[in-house]
Structures are given as structure tokens and as C-alpha cells.
Amino acid sequence: MTHQQSYEHKRTSADQAIRQVRDGDTIIVPTGVGEPPSLLTALSEQRQSFRDVKVCQILAMRKYGYIDPATTEHVRHVAFFFGGATRAGGQEGWIDFIPNYFSEIPAQIERGQIAADVVFAMASPMDEHGFFALSLGADYTMAAVKKARAVVLEVNPHVPFAFGNCHVHISQVAALVESDAPVLEVGLPKIGPVQQAIGKYVADLIDDGSTLQIGYGGIPDAVVMQLTGKKDLGIHTEMIGDGIMTLVEAGAVTNRRKNFMPGKMVATFGLGSAKLYRFMHRNPGLEMHPVEFTNDPAIAGLNDNLVAINATLQIDFLGQCGSESLGYAPYSGTGGQSDFVRAANRSKGGKAFIVLPSTARDDTISRIVPSLSPCTHVTTSKNDINYVVTEYGVAQLRGKSMKQRTQALIAIAHPKFRDELTAQAKALKIL
Q1: pLDDT for 286-341, tens place per residue?
Q2: I need a surface site. Which of 5, 150, 218, 409 has the fewest CB within 10 A?
Q3: Environment class of residue 92 by beta-carbon count within 10 Å: exposed (0-12), middle (13-18) or buried (19+)?
């Protein structure tokens, strides 16, 4: 049987394709826009015919019908990371959460700590050799492909065929459906004066020839917008988005001075505009790889001058970062923040930046605090933290004592809170 004959034999409707799922199965779905809308819609419509099925994913983009507190005994969402579609369910307790380092999810799948019975994923059209590209989300999905009983693909001509280790062969596929709806587009976050001020502080500390990891959010994108005049930047990141594409178009990113995989941008998932997805298609300067490759601190840290830029919600005097919850209420997840902070610390000449506005709720709450709010999930530890940046400046913490850290953080807190923070530090016998 030829590749095309095998393709035709496995091609079916979404309603039929989801019959690959059995009661008790765990379905693995890629990050973000790698989620297959036709398959997840069909699963939602038929969810009451299943029992105890779990859908595991980082950052669900759409609130499908199965994300429903009334039918969790049939199909239940399990989050590796919360987003707008799942945050309320996580806070209310009917969506489960598995704590993780993004880089280690594949190992947990391989070891059976996270089940992977079925894979549902968006894929590019098949090439002449019988391969599809899971370019929008190689992440942990490639590990799941190796473990799963059934791999079900939603083939869409708008999904780019990228290079790298993100390919699935037709022989590995149990069923496939076709769709031609445009891939979901995600715009750049809003950037205001606070974000711009933070972005300038960070940009001023990034040297020509640095290799960048850029997280998602208004502040990281504000940094990107101020890097267009830099030279010979490289990319080794988890997410490729429109900001990075802008730097390539501006000539700031060339990857020429990368000592690890020179000439190549490296990422594990794509999230952005239709223009970005076209940019990713057969781009010889871009490789999409599984997250155990892109985010492993030992591998990412092989890049000299690696710069990691990630945001947090709150930081205490020790430097502990609470980036994923509001007290006990979950908000997002660890994602790749800890991975890349540790990678930048390993990197020769590396710099890890944690960025945050100095206040929340219209300047009524300081985000720099003596101790994290009760029950806050600690994302990045005091031992890993290095540069902390607010709109009031930069605090460099690595190698500093508790007293020195506290003084440096108070200096970049909002002025209206500095006296109060100083008094609290004295009461705690820190100053």
C-alpha cells in the first residue's frame, strides 16, 4: 500500500475518528493552537457516550463543550497549565491540575506517570514521504505519539510543515480527519507605559549576539519591540510568536553567533498570527523540537549568552516567585519559566530576567512583598532567581545575601510602598 493509499484508508469523519477513544482513556492534546478543533468538538458532542475520559493539555485555547462541570464523569479536562478557557474550572475544582516542569512532561509520559492512551493533534498535510508535521505543538506530544495506542490527526492545509523533530509518519496514525478552517490566531498582548519601561531596562542589558528565550506576555513582548536595533541575536525558546518573527524581519535575529545549533531558531510550539504560521512553513532557519530538548536546562544552557525573559505575579524578599497562582487559586502554571531560568544560569554569559509591574489593582497592592501570599504556588526558587525588573529598575539577586536582596527589591518597588516594606523588613530582623 502506498502512503497515499494508506492515507485514504485512514481518512474518516471526526465522529468516527473519536471512536478510537475508549472509556478510561487519557487523551493527550498539544499546547495552544496545536489542539484539533474538529476532533475536540466531536468529542464534546458525544461526551455523554464516554465514561472517565481525560483530556490533558497545556494552555487550552477554546472552551469546548466537554469543558463542562456537569459532565466531568464522562470527559474531564486535566490541565498542565491554565488559560482563559480553563482557569475558572481549575479555581472551582472541577478541572484537575498536574504540577510539572514543562521540560519533564515527556519523561512523565514515557514512565507512565502521565497516561497517554490516545493523541489528538493538528497536523500539516502529508508530504511525499508519508510524514505530517506537528509544528504547532511538538512539546510533549511527540513523546505521547510513541506511547499511545491510537494517534488521531486533524490535517489542515494552514498548519505549517516545519523542520526539526516534529514529524509523524502515516504508519503511526490510526485515523485522520481533514479540515480547512484557518488556524486560530492569537494577537500580541497589550503593551502600556509600565511594560515599555520594564522592557527598556531589560533590553539595555541584552548584548548583541545573545540567544533569547522569550515568554508570553505584555512585558516580554515589550522587550522584543526594543530589540530591533540589536545585531546577530539567536533564538532558543519554547514559544515562537510574532515578536520573534518581527526581530527576524528587522534583521536583528540572524542566529549566526549561536554556538549551539548555529543558524537555527529552535522552539517547541507556535502561537500567533496567520503570518507567523506561514513564516514557519518549510523555513530552513527554524526547527521545532520536543520540549525535553528545547527546555531541558542542560541542553538550553549549552547556548552561550542565553537570555531568559519571563514574568511573575509576586516576589518576596528572598526572591521566591509566585508566577502561577493568586494565593491558592490557580492562575496559570509553571510552564517553562523554571526551565529557562536554570538554563540561563548554566549558560556561559547567561542572564535570567524575571519581570513584573511593581503593583497590582491600580497601585493599591505591592507585588514585592516580605513573604508570598498564603498558599501561593512557588514557581521559581530563591536559589535560581537572578535579575528582577520592575518599571523602577533592576535588582540583581544571585549571590546576594537576604539583606542585600531585600534592599535591592525595595529599591525597585513602587515608591509609595518603600517605607512600609522597609518597616516590615526591620520587623522581621532582615534590615
Answers
A1: 999 999 999 999 999 999 999 999 999 999 999 999 999 999 999 999 999 999 99
A2: 5
A3: exposed
Gap between the Cα atoms of 328 and 350, Å rounded: 32
Cβ contact 260:303 at 8 Å: yes
Whole-angstrom CA distances from 192 to 52, 189, 195, 245, 392 are 45, 10, 5, 21, 15
SS3 264: coil
Distance separating alpha carbons of residues 282 and 91, to the nearest angstrom? 40
Residue 193 pLDDT: 93
Cβ atoms < 10 Å from Cβ of 187: 8
Q: Point out which residues pair with 54 in neighbouring strands.
A: 26, 76
Joined together, the cell numbers standing for residue 6 give 494508506
Task: Tell me the average pLDDT across 251-256.
Answer: 98
- State the pTM of this model: 0.96
> Which amino acid, residue 172?
Q
DSSP state, residue 290: -
Q: Please answer whether residues 316 and 369 qualify as being in contact, where contact means their C-beta atoms are separated by less than 8 angstroms.
A: yes
What is the CB-side half-sphere exposure of residue 384 using CA atoms within 13 A? 22
Residue whose entry in the numeric block shows the C-alpha cell 516580605: 370
Q: CB-side exposure of 201: number of CA atoms within 13 Å? A: 23
Angle at 396 between CA 345 and CA 329, to 5 degrees: 80
104, 154, 238, 287: which is the annotated catalytic residue?
238
Cell numbers standing for residue 325: 497562582
How far apart CA 248 and CA 255 sit, in angstroms, is 10
Q: Among the residues of 261-401, which ranges form H helices? A: 274-280, 291-294, 297-300, 337-346
DSSP 60-73: --S--TT--GGGTT
pLDDT of 128-165, one tens digit each? 999 999 999 999 999 999 999 999 999 999 999 999 99
Q: How far apart are CA 358 and CA 393, in angstroms?
A: 10
Helix locations, 263-401, DSSP H: 274-280, 291-294, 297-300, 337-346
Give the three cell numbers for residue 142.
Answer: 511527540
Residue 238 appears among annotated catalytic residues = yes
- Measured in whole angstroms, the distance separating CA 331 from the mean position of its chain's CA atoms is 14
> What DSSP line would sit under 25-57, residue for residue?
-EEE--SGGGS-HHHHHHHHHTGGG--SEEEEE
CB distance 322 to 388 below 8 Å? no
